[in-house]
Design goal:
eight-stranded mixed barrel; alpha+beta; Diaminopimelate Epimerase, Chain A, domain 1; single chain; globular; 17 strands; 275 residues; 24% helix
Length: 275
């Protein structure tokens, strides 16, 4: 069984978020996929098998199955380009149908996914208070122009925008308490963001629901966040660039491109490197 290990959203030849990728004639059963993901130990492993018009894909973290994972999709796109050549590949997920474009230019692997539809909703005051307590933040740490919200772009996340890079760098929380909160609220991750400019964001993504303290690059949360900024009529001018993983020593770069159409798919792209 050939599990490829690919870091998605790398910054040239460093950083990125490692993902496992298995492309097989048939998928292992659910228990075996969960066991493989736990053994690989990355935040997600993507499992893909050919269909007549694309690939059936499932994603597993070390502790649970997730409906959609951006960085593992980028890693899968790179792996598909390596195996089948440059192209756009249709992907059938548990709850959505999307695509990923993979390409290889010399030693550089690139991929771009089209996310599932996006939507967002305000977070309740009680949830905001609980999340602030989890991270040790106060209301004064929040960016009032981007209110705390539940966001979705194939999976559920919570967006918490902070008003300083220092507050973002100071992120800390208890993994078990975070896991309980995310599972209770049906959140895959919590996205913490700082806006350097209207189009450049620095983010961090606790992924306690999957047993991972922090993800160095999170394409699904980036897609959901881009959709939320569109809902807010944020001055995005059609794209945002996201720098993630800096505070982990695993700098990653993600780009989200999108129209003004409410709910429409977000294109999230980046480079990848074989590990």
């Amino acid at each position: 069984m050939n599990i490829q290990k690919i870091a998605a959203f790398s910054d040239q030849n460093i950083g990125g978020n490692p993902a496992g990728v298995l492309i097989a004639d048939t998928l292992p059963d659910t228990a075996e996929m969960q066991s493989i993901a736990a053994e690989v130990g990355f935040s997600e492993t993507a499992f893909a098998t050919p269909l007549e018009s694309g690939f059936r894909v499932r994603y597993f973290s070390p502790e649970s199955e997730v409906p959609f994972c951006g960085h593992a999709t980028i890693a899968l796109g790179a792996a598909l380009a390596l195996e089948f050549g440059d192209g756009i590949f249709n992907l059938a997920l548990n709850d959505a149908e999307i695509s990923v474009e993979g390409s290889k230019d010399g030693e550089i692997l690139s991929a771009a996914l089209q996310s599932p539809p996006t939507h967002s909703a305000p977070a309740s005051p009680a949830l905001v208070e609980t999340v602030l307590d989890l991270f040790g933040y106060s209301e004064q740490d929040l960016n009032p122009d981007i209110p705390v919200a539940k966001i979705h772009g194939g999976a559920n996340h919570l967006a918490v925008a902070l008003n300083s890079r220092e507050a973002l760098a100071a992120m800390k929380y208890d993994l078990d308490v975070g896991r309980d909160l995310m599972n209770r609220e049906q959140l895959v991750t919590i996205l913490l963001a700082y806006a350097e400019t209207p189009q450049i964001f620095h983010t961090r993504n606790p992924f306690a629901s999957g047993g991972v303290y922090e993800d160095p690059a999170t394409g699904a949360a980036t897609a959901a966040f881009a959709g939320y900024l569109r809902d807010l009529n944020w001055p995005h001018n059609g794209l945002i660039d996201v720098v993630q993983g800096e505070d982990m020593g695993m700098r990653s770069k993600l780009r989200a491109e999108f129209s003004n159409t409410t709910g429409a798919s977000i294109r999230v792209s980046g480079t990848a490197r074989i590990m």
